[in-house]
């Protein structure tokens, strides 16, 4: 621990001076605060690289500090009863409003999935705890915040399957009535990797012939939706943007699938596709699914398909199959699989590598006839919704939260 502290201190001192001056677009509000916040994230990331290099602790193990520093014990307050439950073997933090509903009135419910690239984050981080309380009170809803297991200890599909199990368990008539939840008013929602899980669960529930209760809505906050093309215009434009530089997003993707560093390197150069996944590139063709304004500076070229030795390596391995799996990349389904999905809220940010994932899903859902509310933040950056707690509280986070809650109020 002492060695860790010293390394952290030295890293912070040496990197601060340089990173504080990272160019961040002028129009982003509270720019200095964002630079300072990002300095912390970048320094931690360098420390994590260094730690992995010298064999102290792996990269994600060090990055997990982000989760730990904001960890709290969720407790009941005067408005909300908070308990930790076990739903079919998966831990869930459950928020139930104390406010009395009318005699026979049933409540709404939101299943919330935290972000953190499937590798970091927890329902117990204070920003998620605050958000869950706010949702519980303002919607008079039951909120389930799912503590799904994380990569790299648990690669895909474990995090996804944990979430799916919770949702299947909760959507049983008997369980819903136990919590006084209206089966017709349930939403799934999440930010970033949580948005990925929410989109995937919405699709898979629809395909499940035994499933009676379906979701009414899905609310996706700057979701991750595809792993095939990691060079969309937004990946290119925002590759060094806070809080999620391209390298970190690629790292999250590769760690979700495998600990094999060769896969990370292939993803970095966008040469990770195999013959199976390349057949699905048409579903993430940004040249077809992004509005013209986003094409301007970029020329579309389909990601390369690996050949030769590398192909052999990935063709047979788990990452190759995961790559083509819509439970990991919800954009990889034909229109027919989108048609009956619950109405959607999709939030995107201009300064976010994942902007185009979200916008492509908006286009594809709309052309399949799904009702979509698309809220795009022109000066938004990835992860903003999390910054609600002093000293890293941003006005943008408050606006985003208010608009998101408003949509749920009106649509759930
Ligand atoms: C992508 O879309 C463009 C425009 O619709 C089309 O010309 C091109 O052939 C497509 N490429 C792939 C790989 O689907
Ligand atoms: C895109 O293609 C056009 C026409 O071929 C070319 O003039 C332009 O430089 C290209 N832009 C990029 C970013 O490669």
Task: Break the fold down into its secondary structure elements and pairings.
Elements: H1 2-19, H2 31-53, H3 59-63, H4 65-69, E1 80-87, E2 90-97, E3 107-113, H5 126-139, E4 141-147, H6 158-170, H7 173-178, E5 181-191, H8 193-207, E6 217-221, H9 233-237, H10 246-257, H11 261-268, H12 275-278, H13 286-289, H14 308-316, H15 318-323, H16 335-338, E7 343-351, H17 355-367, E8 372-381, E9 388-389, E10 392-393, H18 395-411
Parallel strand pairs: 3-4, 3-5, 5-6, 6-7, 7-8
Antiparallel strand pairs: 1-2, 2-4, 9-10
One 2-acetamido-2-deoxy-beta-D-glucopyranose (NAG) binds at residues 281-282, 285, 287-288, 302.
Order of the strands making up the biggest sheet: 1-2-4-3-5-6-7-8
Sequence of secondary-structure elements? HHHHEEEHEHHEHEHHHHHHHHEHEEEH
What share of residues is helical?
A: 40-55%
Number of strands: 10
Describe the structure.
There is one protein chain. This protein has 412 residues and is α/β, with parallel strands linked by helices. It has one domain (25-412): Rossmann fold, CATH 3.40.50.1820. It has helices at 2-19, 31-53, 59-63, 65-69, 126-139, 158-170, 173-178, 193-207, 233-237, 246-257, 261-268, 275-278, 286-289, 308-316, 318-323, 335-338, 355-367, 395-411, and strands at 80-87, 90-97, 107-113, 141-147, 181-191, 217-221, 343-351, 372-381, 388-389, 392-393. The strands form 2 sheets. An 8-stranded mixed beta sheet has the order 1-2-4-3-5-6-7-8, sandwiched between helices. Helix 1 crosses helix 2 (31-53), helix 6 packs across helix 8 (193-207) and helix 10 crosses helix 11 (261-268). The radius of gyration is 21 Å and the shape is globular. The model has no long low-confidence stretch (mean pLDDT 92). It binds 2-acetamido-2-deoxy-beta-D-glucopyranose (NAG) (2 copies). Residues 281-282, 285, 287-288, 302 line the site of one 2-acetamido-2-deoxy-beta-D-glucopyranose.
